[in-house]
Amino acid sequence: MRQMVISRHGAPDVFEPREAPTPAPGPGEVRIAVRASGVNFADILALARLRRATIIGTSSSVKHATLRAFGVDHVIDSRTADVAREVEGVTGARGVDVILDAVGGKSFDVSYRLLAPLGRLVIFGVSSVAVGERRSWWHAARALMQMSSFKPMSLINHNRGVFGLNLAHLWSERRQLAVAMRQLLQDVAGGRLRPVVARTFPLEHAADAHRFVQSRSNIGKVVLTV
Ligand SMILES: NC(=O)c1ccc[n+]([C@@H]2O[C@H](COP(=O)([O-])OP(=O)(O)OC[C@H]3O[C@@H](n4cnc5c(N)ncnc54)[C@H](OP(=O)(O)O)[C@@H]3O)[C@@H](O)[C@H]2O)c1
Questions:
Q1: What is the pLDDT of residue 9?
Q2: Residue-level pLDDT at 43
Q3: Residue 41 pLDDT more than 50?
Q4: Residue 174 region, left (φ>0) first, then alpha (ψ -120 to 50), else beta?
Q5: How far apart are CA 140 and CA 129, in angstroms?
Q6: Which atom of ligand 1 is closest in space to residue 124's alpha carbon?
Q7: Are the C-beta atoms of 16 and 138 separated by less than 8 Å?
Q8: How far is CA 28 from CA 47, 124, 140, in A?
Q9: In a mutational test of the pocket of ligand 1, which residue from 216, 217, 223 has the highest number of ligand atoms less than 8 Å from its CB?
Q10: Element (H or E) spanning 112, and its range?
């Protein structure tokens, strides 16, 4: 069995190709033949359009035309614009019902302040902690210090909710994951959800795939093929 192993911290060149014995499934287990593996995440944008929400998206400006074509109603350049002011321009004083924030750092605070009454902020990533290929303690520390600590009295008084999500720590919740997965697969089979693949790389080029993601050039998934 071929593997691309990360045995130490570092830039994408720490990937090592290895051969390992093919595991034999034990009682109650199955072995899965992997044909392709995503480097990236689910398509939340589509997981909003199906619900007929008005979508406000942030990205660098080169991606705006594509995001509009995907159904994003309002696009904001996260690198140059005052995101809070632009969002207020769209929603008025009311604010936003659901915010999905994977940027972290000061973005969590901005997002929290933009919530409408009964609004929910889902925090599921901290992209702002990792800038560039090499580890930067300074950037990581700054992003961590800028992060909000949400105050119970503010949550109560503003009728707001904050929800954290990490799929990697959810594997034991099989029953609930199965429900969500069934819904996703039905939407894919029915053509309502169409995964967007930005680019594929052979498994052995996993380091290049990581460089591509870190360059922030992709729109959609980056896939490793086996
Ligand atoms: N919690 C979970 O279970 C889970 C699972 C998978 C992924 N995630 C997280 O979800 C986030 C997105 O993952 P993805 O796979 O969807 O990534 P993706 O498709 O590669 O999109 C990431 C985009 O975010 C923007 N970005 C990157 N760094 C940024 C920064 N410092 N500030 C502002 N924007 C930045 C870039 O676009 P522009 O440069 O155009 O703005 C980049 O292309 C990541 O934070 C990832 O860790 C969480």
A1: 75
A2: 44
A3: no
A4: alpha
A5: 4
A6: 1
A7: no
A8: 32, 32, 42
A9: 216
A10: helix 106-113
d(CA 120, CA 111): 10
Phi, then psi, of 168 in degrees rounded to 5: -65, -20
Q: Are 224 and 200 in contact (CB under 8 A)?
A: yes
Contact 176, 133 (CB under 8 A): no
Ligand 1 pocket mutation, candidates 39, 40, 214, criterion most atoms within 8 A of CB: 40
- Tokens representing residue 70 in the block: 């995907």
List the beta bridge partners of residue 74.
56
Selected residue with higher pLDDT from 109 and 11: 109
CA proximity to 39, closest of 226, 200, 215, 204: 200
pTM exceeding 0.85: no
Strand 15-19 relative to strand 36-38, pairing:
unpaired
Q: Are 24 and 34 in contact (CB under 8 A)?
A: no
Give me the amino acid identity at 65. Answer: A
Q: How far, in Å, from the CA of 213 to the mean position of ligand 1?
A: 9
CA angle 172, 197, 214 (to 5 degrees): 80
Do the Cβ atoms of 192 and 48 come closer than 8 Å? no
Work out the percent of the chain whose per-residue pLDDT is above 90.
51
∠ Cα 58 62 66 (to 5°): 75
Q: Is the CB of 210 under 6 A from ligand 1?
A: no
